[in-house]
Amino acid sequence: MSDAKFFAKGKAAELRVELKSDKKDKNFARRKTTLKRIVANMTMNNNEMIQLFPDILECMNVDSLEIKKMCFLYLINYARVKPDLANKALSTLLSDINDRSPLIRALALRTMSCVPLGTYARAIVEPLQDLLRDSDPYVRKTAAFGVAKLWAADPNLVEKSGLIESVNQLLVDSNPTVVSAGLAALSDITDKSDGMKLAIGYQDASKLIKILPDCNEWSQTYILTALMSYTPQDTAEALLMAERLSPRLAHSNASVILGTIRVMIYLTNYISDDSAVDMLVRRFGPPLVTLLSKPYEIQYVALRNCFLILQQYPYILQNNIKVFFCKYNDPIYIKVSKLEIIFLLASEENMPEILRELREYASEIDVQFVRKAVRAIGKLAIKIKGSARACIDTLLDLVATRVSYIVQEATIVIKNIFRKYPNKYESIITVLCKNLDSLDEPEAKAAMIWIIGQYADRIENSDEILDDFLFTFKEETIEVQLALLTATVKLFVQRPAKGQELVLQVLKWATEETDNPDLRDRGYMYWRLLSSSSGNADLTRQIVMGEKPAVTVESDKLDDKTLEELTLNIGSLASIYMRPVNQIFKGTKAKQLEQSPALRRAFSDGPVMTQQMNVTSSAAEDGEDDFADTGYRGPDVFAARGDLLSEA
Amino acid sequence: MASAVFFLDLKGKPLLSRNYRGDVPMSAVDKFPILLLDAEEESSVVPPCFSHEGVNYLYIRHSNLYLLAITKRNSNAAEILLFLHKVVQVLTEYFKVLEEESIRDNFVVIYELLDELMDFGYPQTTETKILQEYITQESHKLEVQVRPPIAVTNAVSWRSEGIRYRKNEVFLDVIESVNLLVSSTGTVLRSEILGSVKLKCYLSGMPELRLGLNDRVMFENSGRSTRGKSIEMEDVKFHQCVRLSRFENDRTISFIPPDGEFELMSYRLNTQVKPLIWVECAVQMHAGSRVEYAIKARAQFKRRSTANNVEIIIPVPDDADTPKFRTTVGTVHYAPEKAAIIWKIKHFGGGKEFAMRAELGLPSVKESDPDRKKRPISVKFEIPYFTTSGIQVRYLKIIESKLQYPSLPWVRYITQSGDDYTVRLP
């Protein structure tokens, strides 16, 4: 039977009559139907339903679980608007919390801890103490999360009540699910708390790994998170833990796999034996590859994390690069993420197959992806010296397609290749010069103009080409104008006879007819340079044609410190955005490697910051208002834009 | 950890939601469709999670729905996205189909489920079979329920006690999907086998099962001579019922199964696969008038096997018309909406080879961007009673020590094309 019919907009008065009717109501059928209509209207944000609060309070005591659940849902939804009325439900909830059915005890507890009112928070402290020791594990588990909820609403209240200690007791509970719920609650609290920190000793960590198989998949992820709070004291200990965890890599749940990898990588920081570390991390390869046949969203998380892991340990999958080749139907965000990994794993050995593959991508439909593929080829020429020739040949092959955006992208990267390998691959200039008409984007134009200026003495008709470009000087963007100015000066320095006329013209434009200060400054600079040192052409040449810093692609890599932090956060949002946690998440503690005799290396930025203060932050002081938006605006992040393959 | 979960229609209008933590204003959802649209306009690269003004949006799409989770913390993205997929799975198992209409049709149960699936943003129980024991749509059953199923907090969280069948049976399906990419010059660029062992269990009590495969590592460990064929799996993933440490120790696959249907394990082989169906294609383009295709397809597996429902999908220019086909076997039709011609062969015997010729007219005015959209040929098929890897079920032992019933395992094998069995066009 379909319930969609309840989604007709209802009048409060009408519904009230239905609820209050004295007519016989066998099995509460009528009231159930009416409540469904009310909940449906609530779902549609029909605020008239708020008026029914007193009637809902009456229904709450009806002996039917279905009715109770709907009433509680109503309560959670509207409690904040009508705190006085909501408080009248307290007695019902407090009696339900002592119900003989664990299902109802847990339901009442969950509901109470969801109501965002101080009165509820205060009322639940006492019962929580008992519920944490309830005979039923389902209730104990719910109570553990209840404490975390209460802490988020009112940290002071919880810390004074001794509830934290009681949750601590759950860690020795006989039921693994309860243990993991306790850990999840404590992790949630300590993650935000200034004063408290989760610390797990060897014995406890060992016990946790032992109960892992007895937990459901989600509980396993909570235990894996908590294990990051265990600090090994020597290599053997860390190694043993890692070994015991590694069977989890065969779990079907992707977040269990990534969680296991996270803990194992964390442990390697405390293992001094390189070959042992090597053995451990090699086990990540096959499971990571398998994640690439999961749903796209999961693949995406896996790929971003692969990038992090492979940056540190490229050998895990270097011989397996084919698994990152794009499938035709992959969404673009997957393709771009794969492209980044292909770039990362490229070496002289696998270059032939990579180039074949990238060449293929360059003929796909999506323009952005095509451009990234072309850019990647150019960057590979810079990254791997031995393969530069092959990369350039592929680029020329692409330029020959005469597809405008490919030619432009190729021109841009070829400029960088010239900068990296000066005076080496000049023969390709001829090919580029044949495709000048395709250039209409400023970046590509500026790149081409740079090439012409730099090689003005070797391009037969460089003055004519520049002249052509100069024809539209005034309409160009500043980027192109600056390039034109410099290129013309370079032409003049290298071939004074051919450049004289042009340089005078350009300098005049740049100094007298522009509003742009940058262009004018540069114009004057050249003007003075050329007029003052007219006797010393060599000096001018040295300045104008001076050596430029070499182009590298190393800037694409994350720095060691960020990389280390991110590998401690594998699977998290930060690992996807590839940004340090503090940069994006306000007030979240960055994970750090704790000191221990076994710690291999630490970055020298002073002692680890763990203030053992017992004060809570002021924002959290006034409990309920913690929900309010604090006005913090983090940076917006769209990670998969292929930041790593775009021009700096 | 998610602050709230939403079901939205494709326009981004919220249909139903649950606020789990109250630390992110629910109005943040209003920005979601706008952000998505902006992102799509700006770039074709729109990832499944992004952040805006300190709120992180993680979403998946299912039929005509978005499932969205929001959070302010550096949450476990893998966990949240996977949870959203699990929600889809649970609701689909509850309602048969999950789409916009099913949300309204079942809103009360969905609210109840959301309360049970997640607590304070942490995923809890997502086993449909267990949930169905205490959250049902037939309301009369609900009243006497005193406690949640033991499985919810038990070590065996996927199966309840007291299951009874008159006839005890297990059906085991070994399904191999082959992904293959052939270059335009005819070399195999990439190939992989994705295997899956699916079980349908109709067994009473709490049975202990042990599955034996011709796993090379196990043969070697146990010092058995590798009589017959054995296979080497690159990676194996197990349902949570399988004892992973036991597998790690001696490669024994032992488990207490959930009731009904589930995927016991999946595996992956990277070995070079000989293409089961080989396709060659010659294209002759007469720009401005017509294009001709000559296709040859060959079944490169043993004669005693047959591939069923073979479909060879050949991309053609968008603006092609007046198709003419000639083939000795099967049927060919033109699908303009896909810009492709589809050659269907119901039964394709091993070792056989068939040919097809197609001719399509082209408009005399040329496209400005000459066919740059290089789409590959894709092939679909299934071959029953056959696995590419040679995997074999050696035994499936079923022991229920209390009930000691006789039971029957049934095994079936099938190989099919994966989602990426493609041949690049020259």
From TrEMBL, chain A:
<dbReference type="InterPro" id="IPR016342">
    <property type="entry name" value="AP_complex_bsu_1_2_4"/>
</dbReference>
<comment type="similarity">
    <text>Belongs to the adaptor complexes large subunit family.</text>
</comment>
<dbReference type="InterPro" id="IPR026739">
    <property type="entry name" value="AP_beta"/>
</dbReference>
<dbReference type="Pfam" id="PF01602">
    <property type="entry name" value="Adaptin_N"/>
</dbReference>
<comment type="function">
    <text>Adaptins are components of the adaptor complexes which link clathrin to receptors in coated vesicles. Clathrin-associated protein complexes are believed to interact with the cytoplasmic tails of membrane proteins, leading to their selection and concentration.</text>
</comment>
<dbReference type="InterPro" id="IPR016024">
    <property type="entry name" value="ARM-type_fold"/>
</dbReference>
<dbReference type="InterPro" id="IPR002553">
    <property type="entry name" value="Clathrin/coatomer_adapt-like_N"/>
</dbReference>
<keyword id="KW-0653">Protein transport</keyword>
<feature type="domain" description="Clathrin/coatomer adaptor adaptin-like N-terminal">
    <location>
        <begin position="19"/>
        <end position="533"/>
    </location>
</feature>
<keyword id="KW-0813">Transport</keyword>
<dbReference type="InterPro" id="IPR011989">
    <property type="entry name" value="ARM-like"/>
</dbReference>
<keyword id="KW-0472">Membrane</keyword>
<protein>
    <recommendedName>
        <fullName>AP complex subunit beta</fullName>
    </recommendedName>
</protein>
From TrEMBL, chain B:
<dbReference type="InterPro" id="IPR022775">
    <property type="entry name" value="AP_mu_sigma_su"/>
</dbReference>
<protein>
    <submittedName>
        <fullName>Mu homology domain-containing protein</fullName>
    </submittedName>
</protein>
<dbReference type="InterPro" id="IPR028565">
    <property type="entry name" value="MHD"/>
</dbReference>
<dbReference type="InterPro" id="IPR011012">
    <property type="entry name" value="Longin-like_dom_sf"/>
</dbReference>
<keyword id="KW-0813">Transport</keyword>
<dbReference type="InterPro" id="IPR050431">
    <property type="entry name" value="Adaptor_comp_med_subunit"/>
</dbReference>
<dbReference type="InterPro" id="IPR036168">
    <property type="entry name" value="AP2_Mu_C_sf"/>
</dbReference>
<feature type="domain" description="MHD">
    <location>
        <begin position="167"/>
        <end position="424"/>
    </location>
</feature>
<dbReference type="InterPro" id="IPR001392">
    <property type="entry name" value="Clathrin_mu"/>
</dbReference>
<keyword id="KW-0472">Membrane</keyword>
<dbReference type="Pfam" id="PF01217">
    <property type="entry name" value="Clat_adaptor_s"/>
</dbReference>
<comment type="similarity">
    <text>Belongs to the adaptor complexes medium subunit family.</text>
</comment>
<dbReference type="InterPro" id="IPR018240">
    <property type="entry name" value="Clathrin_mu_CS"/>
</dbReference>
<keyword id="KW-0653">Protein transport</keyword>
<dbReference type="Pfam" id="PF00928">
    <property type="entry name" value="Adap_comp_sub"/>
</dbReference>
